[in-house]
Each structure stands twice: as C-alpha cells, then as structure tokens.
Amino acid sequence: MNTIEKALLKKQANSELSNDKITETVQQTHSIERAEQVAQSIKSKPAIEKSETDPQFIHIDLDKLEAKGFVSNRSNRQLINEEYRAIKRKVLDNAFGALSKSLTNSNIVMVTSSRPGEGKTFTAINLALSIALEKDKTVLLVDADVLRPNVMRTLELKNHQGLMEYLLGEKSDISEIMCSTNIPNLRIIPAGKSHHLSTELLASEKMYAAVEEFASRYPDRVVIVDTPPLLGINETAILANLAGQAIVVTEEYKSKLTDVQKAVGQLNPEMAIGFVVNKAQTSNSDGAGYGYYYAGAN
Prior knowledge:
This protein is an alpha/beta fold. The protein is built from twelve helices and nine strands. The termini are far apart. About 35% of the residues are buried.
C-alpha cells in the first residue's frame, strides 16, 4: 500500500468515509498519477521528432545519393568512401591538429576550382557527408556560390532562404537560415535567392562576421564553404582570407595547368592548400576516382 492509500485510510477512520468512497478516490489518484507520467513522457521525447516538423528541416534521400555515386552512410565499404576518408583525415588534422595553431580559422574549409564545371560542389558535398560520419565532429555545409548555387540542386532539394537573405538583412540570425537534416551531424546553409549585388555581398563586413561566427560558435564543427571559381570572380579571393584551408578541385585531362596556377596565386599563401583531382583514373579500379594532394601552408 502506497503513501496516498495509507493517508486515505487514516482519513476514513477520522471522518467515517465509506469503503466505496475510498476506492473511488484512490482510483482517481492513480489516474492523476498516470496522466502526470504520460505528460512527462511526452516532454522527454527526443528533439529530433520536433525538428522534423520545422520548416528549416530538410530530408536528404540517402539512397538516391548513393545511387548517384556519393559517399554512403552504410556500413559496406565503397571506393568513394575510402577516397574521401583519406581527404577528410588531412582536413581534420589541419583543422584540429598541430598545424591548426598556425592557421586562422583552421576549421573553415573553402572548396573551389579555377573554372566552373570541375566538380567543386560534388567534392564539397562528399567531404561534408564523410565528416558527418565522424562520432565527435559536426559539419556545416555553406553554399556561397551565390551566382550559380548548386548544393540544393545537386541534393535534389527545394531551395530555401539562406546566405543571401542573411547578408541582405532579411534574416537577423544565422540560426534562421541554417537547415538541420536527417543526418544528425550535418547542417546546411543554402545560397538563398539571387541578387544583382550577390558578389559584392560576399565581400561585405557582414559576410566576414558570419564566417567568424561559423568558426567560433562550435569548436568541434568543420565548415565546408562551396565558393565560386577563383578565376573571373574577385570576391572568391576575398573569401580566401577568411578561411584557414582551401581545396582546389581539378578535373583530370580537363583543367589547364596555367589556370590552376593562376587560381592558386589568388589564395592566401598562409592557408593550408590541398588539391583534389576529380575523375582521376585509379590504378585499382576501372572507374573514376579522386586524388588528394596537400600543398600546406607556406
């Protein structure tokens, strides 16, 4: 007999309540206790259930991505997972290892190319997916190629309000443009709407402040920024002063060496610079692969 029942029996002795009245009261008390337990259970449900109803939540079709050749979150070993694991290890070492102390914003990684169409968005997404598999790291993927935004299109998702709305002052907080996903460690900031001053906004003080917030808000977060190609767009070189690392994507047999040299010449010489060779013919596979070459910080 619990404490409530004992108290009611004592009250019966003092006030000569009937047994039927006690039974009814105890049943009501049990109903209240049960209702409180249910309410507490509802409060303690995982936050993910609430986030999936949020307008800023996006669901990535992982099966479709895997079929298109992207990094998979499944346990079976795939060539592309192994290739991006090697790339990821160098990036994470630069971001949090010994070299990170000599880099400004070492956890900000810009992914670019010399010219359009060399695979930088494909590389940025795969790198983000690979880092999201880490147990102790989170990753934020930012589409800063505001002239030709391609992250959401590549993921086959609807465009959301994003970076441009924030830079224009239509959104006052970074959290308003940051989308959570069904991959627990991955967040995405879309490019947002097009604007005739988009490239100038990339070079603005507000963009600088946004990158600083990206770098400092979460110490375990890697920020992957898909930027415009380096040649022909001066603002991309300005973004290079905000990032600690740069990955320059080239396409084997397509990218011109002179273009790559010019592109690298626009980067901050104090940042860590790596090269991903896209669609490279690998010796252990008949298909296209990826190579990573690290230049390091001068």
